[in-house]
Amino acid sequence: MEQLSTLGYSILLISIIISILSIRYTLRLRKYLEEFIYVSKKISNKEFHSRISSTAKGDLGELSRNFNEMIEIMDKTISDLDYSNLQKTSILKSISHGILAIDIDGNIMLINEEAKRMLKCDNGILVEGKNIKNVIKEEKLLEEINTFKGWKQNKTDELKINDDLVYKVSIDPIYLESIKHIIIGSIINIQDITEKVKLEHMRSDFVANVSHELKTPLTSISGFVETLRLNENIDVQTRNRFLSIIETESDRLKRLIDDILLLSFIENNEKIVYEGVSLYNVFLEVYEMTNYIAKSKNINLTYEFDDKSIVVFANRDYIKQVFLNLIDNAIKYTPENQGKTVKVSVDTKQDKIIIKVKDEGIGIPKEDINRIFERFYRVDKARSKEVGGTGLGLAIIKHIVKSLGGTIEVKSELRHGSEFIVNIPEKISFK
Fold first, then answer.
1. What is the pLDDT of residues 327-348, one digit of tens each?
2. Which tens digit of pLDDT belongs to each residue from 271-299?
3. What is the rounded (10 degree) CA torsion for 385, 388, 390, 391?
4. What share of the chain has pLDDT > 70, as a percent?
5. How far apart are CA 123 and CA 111, in angstroms?
């Protein structure tokens, strides 16, 4: 009986010990699971700095270490992805062209802000993942992209959106990594080439106009020279008249070439010397040159300076050319022997120098005002040739004023005269 009693106590003691150990292990396991759940919730909330701090050993300890290592790897991977996405976003934003990537069905995978603007997407709306037909409002671009998306060949077109806008659209296939026969979408590059197209047209027009302007006097000179050479018995009066025409056409050629060279010099900013220039002194030089012509036509050339001590930091020849061309034009296109007036005024206002040249001449038709600064554009071609104009004077003035950081505008009414107004910054002023 005593042995049985001892055995019973031993079993009871062992049971109690096992129960205590089981309870203790259960509590530790529960605490570990609570911490595991707590950390996993933080991880799901993107708090990747969280870690399991349990000091458990054995399988639980290994599970904790593995879980922490997994979080660390996940944190680093996500950080790398975020940095990579940040780089791509920054690159996309810095690209001046519109960039758009779509999948084979036309769903947008990638787009930058410039592309959104060009495609007229709604502001503030997330367009990634949406189909192009639901977000692109520019019909011509949408039609172009729809037509050539998924093509295996590269496609480049120039699209004239409207009279003032031309886009160059390049559509290239996107292949599945290195597999060249599986296309997963297209990347579209949209470039605004409006200015380039305008410059090309201007260059083409300029060459054509120069050729025409040079050909006319050269043909005239060549013809009269040939006539004089083949006809030795021409009377002196006729010969002198022919020679006078040759001289006139030669002068016209010289003026044209000089204006072309000056315009090219201004546009290229070649070796321009800037200095302190007295506006009044430069004007007086021009006044002395042009007043004689004005008097010969019975035109009153008057002037008014708000401050005769104004000095600007500019190119002296540029300032002289502005005064000379504007005053010369005003005199040329003002009828003679009618007591008309050409008035020049120079004022300063809000750090600006305002030069005005006003005449009482023939004026400019309203439909021509926006084009008078174009090269070789003439309102009245017959009269322009009669007074010796090359068609480049106002273009030269416009480029000079632009190079000085200023603006030029014109107010005119047909048969009631014109007023040209030049605004340039007052960079140096001595009062």
1. 988 898 888 878 889 999 998 8
2. 677 788 888 999 998 898 888 888 888 99
3. -60
4. 84
5. 13
Distance of CA 235 to the CA centre of its chain: 63
Q: What is the pTM of this model?
A: 0.54
**Contact call for residues 130 and 110 (beta carbons, < 8 A):** no
Q: Tokens 């409002």 label which residue?
A: 137
- Any idea which residue has 């011509």 for tokens? 140
What's the rounded Cα separation, in Å, for the pair 257 and 384?
17
pLDDT exceeds cutoff 50 at 308: yes
Give 316's DSSP letter. Answer: H
The pairing of strands 179-192 and 98-103 is antiparallel
d(CA 261, CA 106): 53
Degrees to nearest 5, angle at CA 142 with 138 and 147 = 155
Residue 109 CB-half CA count within 13 A: 13
Distance CA(113)–CA(100), nearest Å, equals: 10
Task: Indicate the pairing of strand 300-305 with strand 341-349.
Answer: parallel
